[in-house]
Specification:
Elements lengths: L20 H11 L1 H15 L3 H7 L1 H8 L13 H28 L1 H20 L4 H29 L5 H26 L7 H7 L2 H13 L4 H6 L3 H12 L5 H15 L4 H4 L6 H16 L2 H14 L4 H29 L1 H27 L9 H19 L2 H12 L2 H33 L2 H20 L12 H6 L18 H5 L1
Family: Belongs to the major facilitator superfamily. Sugar transporter (TC 2.A.1.1) family.
Pfam family, one: Sugar_tr
Subcellular location: Membrane
Length: 514
């Protein structure tokens, strides 16, 4: 079928074991690595809408917003330096993701998480004490290094620790932590904006140290994954850890599959070179396109600049920050929907439904803004219309939160065999960070030039990515992570790239392709 092969619970190997309290606890602790990413996403938009912050660091933007009434509504916040404050973090995260892949592979997943937390903590302290733009940017660059390490190691850790039947739910815990971080940042921004003395932005930026400390402390107590222990040459220790996380001594079948995958990985001396081989073409394409598509949905327009966007649409200071809180609450609640649904209904149906809902919402938002502000950016939006636009944006955020948000991290982390897993995740993170950087750096400029058409621009890409998912992404729910090649082998398009010797575990391919 053109839509890709479906792999249900009966097609994968049924390993012994149960869902233990130990594995759930470790995955929840590891998922806290998403808090540092989410907090930073949410905090920048609120801070850049605070007058005291703009006056100190970006006075030209403050002048355009408050004194130059001739300025188009679309262009009031157009400043490359202001955008660089937001985007510089993701440029450093891009570079750090390549170094972190080596750390993750050689020293383990938990060491990578610890390193990320420490560097992020240094960046939070520097930002809270910033006296000029240079200190702000340097602090953001350090925050980016921390995020690069966390986003590299945490999704891999979760995918390797979780049993196949709940891998989606536990891995989506990372995205849930991101959304909680965003919501916490929105609430803190709303509170600190009330501080009359004008130092509220310092508190907002400095409090990034809290999730960093949580990640540092958590990483001290986390065990490493059986895959990582085995990869570093300790088979007996790896087997004992597998027995512990599965709650049974009878793990021979799963351990043998891990060992077989590890032996294959040992023969790969250059994972960056090998991932370019035809046999890894499906993984390479997915690890590039999924993070690209995730960012080109336009979601970080909302995450980064929600308060700025709502002020642009005519909301007051308090209303714009409160509207960002509302979208943050929607984000958290609807990510929980994905935790419930990903392992029950599958990844594909969530991708497809979410894509269609986002397309509809983005087109309607463009129409409403176009009607009220036209192309010259002059006009007003009545209260009822503004509330309807807020509803559409919330519906758009909801669709992303149960589809491209969590699944954009889950799918790339679960499809790569061990020998290219670190390289694949590094590509996933670096592509994600690169396009996050582009969105953060150029959105306000694009809004100034494309006006309401910017939302149509993003809607067009969502159409393309939804078509791609329908034809080229097979279902991966309930498939053991070391058996994922059976899915690609059975797919109508990708199957020709997967050699027979890449399929381990005795899968019946005729059943998969029937």
């Amino acid at each position: 079928m053109a839509g890709g092969a479906f792999v249900g619970p009966s097609t994968g190997v049924n390993y012994e074991g149960r869902v233990t309290t130990f594995v759930i606890t470790t995955c929840l602790v590891a998922a806290m690595g998403g808090l540092i990413f989410g907090y930073d996403i949410g905090i920048s938009g609120g801070v850049t809408s605070m007058d005291s912050f703009l006056k100190k660091f970006f006075p030209s933007v403050y002048h355009k917003e408050n004194e130059d009434h001739r300025e188009s509504m679309y262009c009031k916040f157009d400043s490359h330096w202001l955008q660089l404050f937001t985007s510089s973090l993701y440029l450093s995260a891009l570079v750090a993701s390549f170094f972190s892949s080596t750390v993750t592979r050689l020293f383990g997943r938990k060491i990578s998480m610890l390193s990320g937390g420490l560097v992020f903590l240094a960046g939070a302290i520097l930002n809270g004490a910033a006296a000029n733009v240079a200190m702000l940017i340097l602090g953001r660059l350090l925050l980016g290094v921390g995020i690069g390490f966390a986003n590299q190691s945490v999704p891999i850790y979760l995918s390797e620790m979780a049993p196949a039947k709940i891998r989606g739910a536990l891995n989506i815990g990372f995205q849930m932590a991101i959304t909680i971080g965003i919501l916490a940042a929105n609430l803190i921004n709303y509170g600190t904006s009330k501080i009359k003395a004008g130092y509220g932005w310092r508190i907002s930026l400095a409090l990034a140290a809290v999730p960093a400390i949580m990640m540092i402390v958590g990483s001290f107590f986390l065990p490493d994954t059986p895959n990582s222990i085995l990869e570093r040459g300790h088979p007996e220790k790896a087997k004992k850890m597998l027995q512990k996380i599965r709650g049974t001594n009878n793990v021979e079948a799963e351990f043998q599959d891990l060992a077989a995958a590890n032996e294959l990985a040992k023969r790969v001396e250059h994972p960056w070179k090998n991932i370019l081989q035809p046999r890894y073409r499906p993984q390479l394409v997915i690890c590039i396109l999924i993070p690209f598509f995730q960012q080109i949905t336009g979601i970080n327009v909302i995450n980064f600049y929600a308060p700025v966007l709502f002020k642009t649409l005519g909301f007051g200071d308090d209303a714009s920050l409160m509207s960002a809180v509302i979208t943050g609450i929607v984000n958290v609640v609807c990510t929980a929907v994905s935790i419930y649904s990903a392992d029950r209904f599958g990844r594909r149906i969530l991708f497809l439904e979410g894509g269609i809902q986002m397309i509809i919402c983005q087109i309607l938002v463009a129409v409403m803004i176009g009607i009220n502000f036209g192309t010259n950016g002059v006009g007003e939006m009545p209260g009822s219309t503004a509330n309807f636009v807020l509803f559409l944006i919330c519906a758009y955020v909801a669709a992303f939160a149960w589809s491209w948000g969590p699944l954009g991290w889950l799918v790339p982390s679960e499809i790569c065999p061990l020998e290219i897993r670190s390289a694949g995740q590094a590509i996933n993170v670096s592509v994600n960070m690169f396009f996050t950087f582009l969105i953060g750096q150029f959105f306000l400029t694009m809004l100034c030039h494309l006006k309401f058409g910017l939302f149509l621009f993003f809607a067009g890409f969502v159409v393309i990515m939804t078509i791609f998912i329908y034809f080229f992404l097979p279902e991966t729910k309930n498939v053991p992570i070391e058996e994922m090649n059976t899915v690609w082998k059975a797919h109508w398009f990708w199957g020709k790239y997967i050699p027979d010797d890449a399929v381990i575990g005795g899968q019946n391919l005729k059943e998969l392709t029937a």
